Amino acid sequence: MCQRALIYKGELIMKGVEIKYADVCIGALFGAYRQLLQMTFGEALSETRYGKGDTKGFDASVESGIKKCLGDFNGEEIVLITEETDDVTSRVWPIDPNPKQQPKMFFSDPVDRSKYLEQIINLMAKKLFPDDDSGENAKKRSNIKVAELLMHEDIVKLWDKEVDAPASITGATAAITYVNRGRVIFSVILNFITRDIYVACDIGIKSVRIDKDFKNIPTKDPLEYIMREGREIVFPSAMERSLVDDDLNNFVTFLGKDMYKEIFVESGIVPGDYKKFIHHDRPGGPSRVLYLSDLQPKEAPVGFILANGEKIGEWMHWLPFVKFARNFSGNPALRLYEVSLKKALFKNDILVSTPPAYSIFNCRDEKKYIDVSIMKNHAQPSRFRSMLVIASSDNERIGPLMDRFEYRDVGMCL
Predict the structure, then answer these.
(1) Which contacts (CB < 8 Å, 24+ apart) does range 208-217 have?
(2) Dihedral (CA of 77, 79, 84, 88) sign
(3) For labelling alongside 92, which of 107, 169, 225, 356 has CA 20 to 30 A away?
(4) Is the pLDDT of residue 344 over 60?
(5) What is the pLDDT of residue 53?
């Protein structure tokens, strides 16, 4: 078999199976997205028996599409992790801490921000077919294709107004991240609102906007096309963004449910009145790292982002971005820290902040790596939680603060 490889600036970068898996993951997201677009409004918002039993039709459609694509690997030993696959993955979870003995791991968040996606689908449908006394428009809404709603020329404007701007960062997404032999290899994120697809791998971080007819990105070798034709996503340094004083404290994290505020306060990362520094307290998961990129408006700078004791499906997709991000000078752009609280706090019986002995970031051995076997005792691996901070490498406030609290720099494990 002839080994494929990608050549970038004269260097051999990705090769063989890594390219194949990236192509398949890109194809899986494309296929799931197209499947979603072909659903009717009624089908998309109906409740199904899929998974937990209260899953919306669009959630079930996207996840089942991703599972089918990733299940067609000709019997290769892979593990797909989503909230709906825990019953299967917990039985085949790797128990050997040696990363070379662990299977290929694919972490997926099939539909992030589904609550807001449902809201926007509803609003757009009612905009096209307002309620009327006869009930005829309600029937028309039920039969309209989701494509007519999400492909509408006003969809981004509506999202920015009703949810948060910019939609390129805040939009509902699907994501897949590949981990192999203790290393993060790539992440693929597809934005359902803007139709942007982001890929973070060792060539770099690029994005391409999918045409409405899906014809601009080839089904064969899509990774190669995205890396060649895509827009480079840059993660400017604090100096390049001219961040000073309070700008370095501005942050994005999730504080929207019970206990998350207590978790954040316990970390001590922003002492005192943290509310004046919070940029967004109900952000998305996979795309949150993009708040540190050049997609974020200059007039609303963000100093750092935080996984606030959240589940692994929210933050795993950030890790390839941390590993491969570059600033405008071409230097490594981001630092990754793990927060270990002195006080043991639990969310749904799961520890929200892992001390080093229970962390997936193995910094103890000479060869540092991600150890997924640490999650073997979880009946539901997708519920594994952690507290992580990501900031620009030159954020002069976060770096010293992490040192003072002895929160570990775990970027070398990626």
Answers:
(1) 210/30, 210/33, 212/151, 214/30, 214/34, 217/26, 217/30
(2) positive
(3) 356
(4) yes
(5) 59
